[in-house]
Amino acid sequence: MEWKEIQQDLFAMPDDYFLAHCISADAKMGAGIAVEFRKRFELQPLRDRARNHPLDIGACYKAGRSLNLVTKSKFWNKPTYPALTQAVVSMKNMCRDEGITKLAMPQIGCGLDKLQWAKVREIIKEAFKDTEVDIVVCTL
Fold it and tell me: Which of 30, 24, 33, 27 is nearest to 47 (CA)?
């Protein structure tokens, strides 16, 4: 794994990067960076699916170049570190299974969800330590 934290707009990353963010199992995506993901990527099928059956907490769902980590049940809930860890491991497995080697993300779980970046950073680094994935964390 290669790790880099840079000050850059996440959506300005090259097209060969998959972009990750956190969502709720109801897939509302109505606040924070999730709104921008919803606008930029074809996430309606994921939202439609969640309307009938909530997404699995701790899972990662791919939609185009977006990796959607489900870390809580409802949009108004807050995630837990175990749920985030499970979702990050799911994302790592998806990267391995699908040959994804370039990943960019904001400080996931740390905006509206209020998790501590120092803890989240270590969760991600631990999960991806034995991979060939290039991870870029974008902040503005």
Answer: 27
Report d(CA 24, CA 85) in Å as an integer: 15
Does 9 participate in catalysis according to the annotation? no
Catalytic residue among 26, 92, 102, 113: 113
| Tokens coding 136 | 């870029």
Task: Identify the band that residue 140 occupies on the pLDDT scale cut at 50, 70 and 90.
Answer: confident
| Rounded Cα–Cα distance for residues 92 and 33 (Å) | 21
Set 26, 72, 92, 102: catalytic member = 72
Looking only at the bridges linking them, the beta strands covering 134-139 and 2-7 are: parallel
Please report the pLDDT score of residue 18 as a whole number: 98
* Residue whose structure tokens are 């400080």: 107
User: Are 105 and 138 within 8 A, CB to CB?
Assistant: yes
Strand runs (DSSP E) across 43-124, as ranges?
Answer: 60-63, 66-72, 102-105
> Tokens 């904001």 label which residue?
106
pLDDT score at 118 = 98
Contact 73, 24 (CB under 8 A): yes
56 is catalytic: no
| Residue in this structure with the two tokens 């809580």, named with its chain if needed | 72
**pTM, full prediction:** 0.96
